[in-house]
Amino acid sequence: MLSRVEHLESTLVRTPTTSIVTHWRGRTHHLRLKHESFNPSGSIKDRTAAGLLMAMDRRSPLVPGTVVVESTSGNLGLGMARLLAGLDCRLIAVIDPKTPPATRDALTRAGVQVYFVDEPDGYGGYLLTRLRTVRDLCATNPGYRWPDQYGNYANPWIHQLTTGPEIAEQGGPDLDAVYVAVSTGGTLAGIAAHLRTLDQQIRIIAVDAHGSLVTGAPPGHRLIAGIGASRRSSFLSEHSYDAATWVADADAIAVCRVFLADTGVALGGSSGCVLHACLLDLAGPQPPTNPLCLCPDGGDRYRATLYDDTWLDEVGAREPVELAVKRLRADGLRFQNG
Predict the structure, then answer these.
(1) Calpha distance 282→20 (Å, rounded)
(2) Contact yes or no for 34/295 (Cβ under 8 A)
(3) Fewer CB near the terminus (10 Å): N or C of the chain?
(4) What residues form DSSP beta bridges with 32?
(5) What 3-state class would DSSP assign to 325?
(6) Helical pair 101-109 and 75-85, crossing angle rounded to 10 deg
(7) Would you call 310 exposed, middle or buried from its count of C-beta atoms within 10 A (0-12, 13-18, 19+)?
(8) Distance CA 88, CA 211 (A)
(9) pLDDT averaged over consecutive 10-residue blocks of the chain (338 residues)?
(10) CA-to-CA distance for 166 and 78, rounded, in angstroms?
(11) Which H helix or E strand runs over 21?
């Protein structure tokens, strides 16, 4: 029988990369995508969940019956639900309207108790409302335990231990740029903490959403779940990244749709942001020669949103997305499996 720590560590799997040939603005480029959709619950948040729960268990054992409550856009909740079920513990997930319907359904099927908040926080999202709800639940129920993915340094630690070394190995000695989406900032902070120790010149790019405050931009409305936040990151410093790129919702969704049409692979919205940020640099005067894009999840849970025209109509994004697709194609964008 697995110990608690062995059970939590069991989710830490090595995820693959694929080579992609990109034709873009008259040039041909080669890049790597690292697919975190190959984690057990389908996203990079499986790693974060394991790190947070291991740290929690070290402080006080996660005995059967323990109730964990966390704010999540969805994927972290799925990762935690899987691990906690194996420990006979349960999860309360505080989510909001940006959580895709497929993810909400998956949380319910996993036995998660879902708290749905729909009060905007005044900064382009619902995060601050979700966090207030978590604090209220914990204050009312003293036995509840909160991992706090936004403030717990176990978040970047697990990515320094696992994701960073994998990226360095898979990218090889010629790796010269890494693109990472930010929300809590923990993934990027952990990856950077490892890559900065290497005797290798690797440019690290924080990929944020237009309207997100994570890397210091003004607040605004955001559509895509899992990227951006209504507050600055607790984990990122000036040494964590070399540049920040802010990507508009329409541009990210357009890249996702073009990539699916060309390769048959559906990417999640934050992955579309990352790939678009890389494209901007590839079109620049000094493009990277061996970039790697960290893709946090796949597109299956977004079929009813990012890939659905009816949803685009509902949120007023269909015309901007269609125009963005036309611009990308007019600039010669085409993806090929490498």
Answers:
(1) 13
(2) yes
(3) N
(4) 19, 292
(5) helix
(6) 10
(7) exposed
(8) 39
(9) 77 95 97 97 96 95 96 95 95 95 94 95 92 97 96 97 98 97 97 96 97 90 92 93 97 98 98 98 96 97 96 97 98 95
(10) 23
(11) strand 17-24
In this predicted structure, what is the pLDDT of residue 140? 97
Quickly count: other Cβ atoms within 10 Å of residue 156's Cβ: 29
Per-residue model confidence (pLDDT) at position 1? 61
Reported as half-sphere exposure (CB side, CA atoms, 13 A), residue 136 has a value of 9
Q: How many residues does the chain have?
A: 338
Tokens of 266: 């559906």
**What is the distance between the alpha carbons of residues 263 and 270, in angstroms, rounded to a whole number?**
18
Return all residues near 116 (Cβ < 8 A) that are at least 6 apart: 95, 96, 97
Crossing angle (nearest 10°) for helices 164-171 and 186-195: 60
Q: State the CB neighbour count (10 A cutoff) for residue 165.
A: 16
Query: What does DSSP assign to residue 112?
Result: P
- Return d(Cα 99, Cα 86) in angstroms, integer: 24
Rounded distance, CA 92 to CA 70, Å? 7
Report pLDDT for 2. Answer: 67
- Residue 167, amino acid: I
Nearest to 263 by CA among 275, 273, 277: 275
- For 271, what's the count of Cα atoms within 13 Å in the CB-facing half-sphere? 27
Q: How far apart are CA 127 and CA 58, in angstroms?
A: 27
Give the integer Cα–Cα distance in Å for 227 and 302. Answer: 14
Q: What is the C-alpha R_g of the chain?
A: 19
Contact between 123 and 231 (Cβ < 8 Å): yes
Pairing, β 67-71 against β 334-337: unpaired
